Automatic annotation (TrEMBL):
Substrate binds at residues 155-158, 210, 255-259, 263, 327. This is UDP-glucose 6-dehydrogenase. Residues 320-422 form the UDP-glucose/GDP-mannose dehydrogenase C-terminal domain. One of its GO terms (molecular function) is UDP-glucose 6-dehydrogenase activity. Coiled coil: none annotated. Belongs to the UDP-glucose/GDP-mannose dehydrogenase family. The keyword Oxidoreductase applies. The lineage of its organism: Bacteria, Pseudomonadati, Bacteroidota, Cytophagia, Cytophagales.
């Protein structure tokens, strides 16, 4: 089989590389010449564990190609994936101009039957718009070439994207013809060996599935954050409550960890977009509106704890921040809670010294030189009034607390991810604040 993947961002690059890995001939296309030049040199636009080696292996094997030439790549293609960005517009709805421009480009270039698949997360109804662009472009050429459109949402987690792609829980494909179903079954066959299902459905349902999945996951998180906040007030321990409810298989143990709110490129954008789609169609997503507002508030919870601890006197104080990316194993800073927390500290006249294993370069785009960047976690602590743990990178999980205590001016830790044992820290003389845990440090009344 021969496929083209348009867009060499996160989704496109992982998709193209993983298909090449199972022996399919893949061309990844982007309009950004610099990106393509870099990819030829083995320089990736994103950080994802294992991806660099996989790209270079498949390029060497002659199965993975990079190009700016859509026309050439689309020739004799069986499947063309559209994996370009859908940035949120001012009003929260996904902007489809890149998706539709690519569809037009495909229509202007294709020379044989091809399944054109939307891989970007797009609102319900987008495949119909893609079909129209293709029809119009082909009509303009006077070409009578058959094609199908399909919707194939991705469920990749940053930091685990390769594994998620190679060993998916499920593959969802929206189709409207048997021919497209046959092509997509053949394409995904190598990924179904361990009994993972491919679920075919109509196109609008596939488009909706992506939003429903992300919104459900975001709902679990906001729900747990709400419970954690209430646990603190009522003297309960959210870690116990989490274990207690998670052992009910209907609820499950995953995605019920409270923290400082969800970030990243998917949850915030998709929740917003679904609320918007609903309201445009005369329906109010009441639960999701609450999910969003709980999340906005949760991003401020750690700052509020800092402010309370220091009696609102934050001017001139220095804070060490461990972790900047929205979650570990990625350099992605989009919607990262760290940005909200740091901006609030800076606005109070505090200084911040931050350390992140991979996201510091990305962070500079928004924080610039308004904070300092430490070369290791311990350097960030020197003379700081407190440590804030913002992202749960593995290397922060078990530091020498003796060294931490010596470097900090005062033994104070604010842990936004509940990664330490409150009893242990208390025994070591730390004031330890975390999220929803009964044994967390209590401010004197
Ligand atoms: C998510 C979905 O998991 C994935 O299926 C979809 O394709 C894209 O969106 P991703 O954004 O990479 O993936 O991150 P994920 O690991 O799901 O975490 C999202 C956010 O939720 C992070 O900010 C994380 O810190 C937060 N989170 C996650 C919690 O606060 N608590 C949890 O229990 C789990």
């Amino acid at each position: 089989m021969k496929i083209a993947v348009v867009g060499t961002g996160y989704v496109g690059l992982v998709t193209g590389t993983c298909f090449a890995e199972v022996g399919i001939d893949v061309t990844c296309i982007d309009i950004d010449q610099k990106k393509i030049d870099n990819l030829h040199k083995g320089i990736l636009p994103i950080y994802e564990p294992g991806l660099e080696e996989m790209v270079s292996r498949n390029v060497s094997a002659g199965r993975l190609h990079f190009s700016t030439n859509l026309k050439e790549a689309i020739q004799d293609c069986d499947v063309a994936f559209i994996a370009v960005g859908t940035p949120p517009g001012e009003d929260g709805s996904a902007d489809l101009k890149y998706v539709l421009a690519v569809a037009r480009g495909i229509g202007e270039s294709m020379n044989n039957y091809c399944v054109v698949v939307t891989k970007s997360t797009v609102p319900v109804g987008t495949a119909a718009k893609v079909r129209k662009e293709l029809d119009d472009a082909l009509a303009k050429r006077g070409a009578a070439i058959e094609f199908d459109v399909a919707s194939n949402p991705e469920f990749l987690k940053e930091g685990a994207a390769i594994d998620d792609f190679l060993k998916p829980d499920r593959i969802v494909v929206g189709i409207s013809s048997e021919r497209a179903e046959e092509v997509m079954s053949r394409l995904y066959k190598p990924f179904l060996l361990n009994g993972h299902p491919i679920i075919f459905m109509d196109i609008p349902s596939a488009e909706m599935t992506k939003y429903a999945a992300n919104s459900m996951l975001a709902t679990k998180i906001s729900f747990m954050n709400d419970i954690a906040n209430l646990c603190e007030i009522m003297g309960a321990d959210v870690n116990m409550v989490r274990k207690g409810i998670g052992s009910d298989a209907r609820i499950g143990t995953k995605f019920i960890y409270p923290g400082i709110g969800y970030g990243g490129s998917c949850f915030p954008k998709d929740v917003k977009a679904l609320i918007k789609t609903a309201s445009e169609n005369g329906y109010e997503m009441q639960v999701l509106k609450a999910v969003e507002s709980v999340n906005d508030a949760q991003k401020e919870v750690l700052f509020d704890k800092v402010s309370k601890h220091f009696g609102g006197e934050l001017a001139g104080k220095k804070f060490a921040v461990w972790g900047l990316s929205f979650k570990p194993k990625t350099d992605d800073m989009r919607e990262a809670p760290s940005l909200v927390i740091i901006e609030k500290l800076l606005a109070e006249g505090s200084t911040v010294s931050a350390y992140d294993p991979v996201a510091m370069e990305e962070a500079k785009h928004s924080l610039g030189d308004r904070i300092t960047y430490a070369k290791d976690p311990f350097e960030a602590l020197v003379d700081a009034d407190a440590l804030l743990v913002v992202t749960e990178w593995p290397e922060f999980r078990s530091p020498s607390f003796e060294v931490v205590g010596k470097l900090l001016k005062d033994k104070v830790i604010f842990d936004g991810r509940n990664i330490y044992d409150p009893a242990e820290l208390r025994a070591l003389g730390f004031a330890y604040h975390c999220i929803g845990v009964k044994t967390a440090h209590k401010e004197p009344a």
